[in-house]
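## retry 2 of 3
previous attempt timed out at serialization; input unchanged, resubmitting
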Amino acid sequence: MAEKYKIPRGTFDILPQDSYKWEYIRKKFRDIAELFNYREIVTPIFEQADLFERSVGNSTDIVQKEMYKFCDKKGRSLALRPEGTASVVRSYVENSSLQQESGTKLFYLGPMFRYDRPQKGRYRQFYQYGVEILGVKDPLADVEVIALGYLFLKDLGLSSFTLEINSIGCSECSPEYDKALVKYFNRFKDSLCNDCLARLEKNPKRILDCKIPSCIDISQEAPSILDNLDEECRLDFDKIQEYLTALSIPFKVNSRIVRGLDYYQKTAFEFINNNLGAQNALLGGGRYDGLVAQLGGKDVPGIGFAGGFERLIISMENEKLSFGKQPIPQIFLILLGETARDSGIKILHDLRKAGISADFLMKPASIKSQMKQADRSRSPLTLILGDNELDQGIITLKNMNTGTQESISLNDLISVIKEKLS
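## retry succeeded, writing output
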């Protein structure tokens, strides 16, 4: 017997009984993004590795430990995308048609890849949705992005989440805050984890994002970035809070939010679901005003967010929310006899051409077996065609909910079915 293959660790199959849930969320996200006049962008699954090393940051866990990096046949260094923003910004810089003076609003959906420790809600191939606004510096852009995320979660029916916001400063005030953090954490070097010791040298703010309990305890008394903001950052952050209050979007300020990517500055935010355990961020994002210039474009501001499908589905299941109806055929066709089977394929084709979803049992079987299959399909209507009915130009229509049957003319089949379904 040939060896059976198993799925790679940290990945999963989306089976037919669950795929409709994913499509439901995809549609909901597209609908809300288009409501805000965002346009979809689809970028390659792999890019030059240097794109992520320069944007995400060489000191981040993503680049140091988690990125799927490889060389192609010509020795070029490539990587499976670990996040979406860098690819969107690369495309924005590369394609002048995206660069609108009034600002560019984009959304994306697709798989991302990180070599991470698999756990509930966190996988090595994961599916992400996200939005980006490029070219707008005003805090109104920050609030629009946050509002889109808020309305999306609400539209899914979720209620057990909290919006947390912070400002992590800009290139002017952030270095002074880094110095304050280095001074503070130097007192605890013997107690920090190895990763945080490296962060202390390269990006001390990321110590605040560490999930190791001992590092979390040490961080509790660390200086707050909110005490170190310059005037512009403070005014912008105050304005964002004012706008969110005006929109009746509840929030709380959490000065420990820094996000895990080096390109963030100023606004940082997360929507937290406290029922998910350690991996509790439904979506998160922030401002990245220097990233476009860093990747070869003009000095254009940007802000966005991203979230994972997996945690949304877990959250919705926890709250017992609906994913809509699982797709089922509207008609199941039962064919009895060789002549009926030969004619049945034309009937199926006509139904499908008319926009009526229909199915049948492809292999010959008894009426009992075919009726069992009709029950399993959960189709509301079943058509039964035998050789005798075919000779008379009629077909039997059975309502699977009531059990009632009637004979209808094959010439009137499409119009009658449409009337029944309506």
